[in-house]
Design goal:
Layout (H helix, E strand, L loop, with lengths): L1 E3 L8 E7 L3 H9 L7 E7 L6 E5 L2 E5 L1 H4 L2 E5 L2
Length: 77
């Protein structure tokens, strides 16, 4: 099943299928290591859902909800 990263529940993990977005946002996500095939686990969400903390390539990363919407994930079983 595929869904955007911003719709994940805490503790849910998956693999990046694609990254959308325009120019600067897409480049920023790639620079942070969010590329096709990368495994991401959602660790925390702020009370209002923004920002999100994820584990990616062995480090913790904080993303805005609008950035997380651009990351289409394949949910791990």
């Amino acid at each position: 099943m595929t869904k955007p990263l911003n719709e994940f529940r805490i503790g849910e993990a998956g693999v990046v299928k694609s990254v959308s977005g325009e120019g600067k946002i897409k480049r920023r996500l790639f620079d942070m290591g969010i590329t096709n095939g990368a495994e991401i686990r959602l660790r925390k969400k702020a009370p209002l859902g923004d920002p999100l903390e994820v584990t990616l390539r062995g480090y913790e990363l904080t993303l805005r909800k609008t950035e997380a919407e651009c990351v289409l994930m394949e949910v791990a079983d």
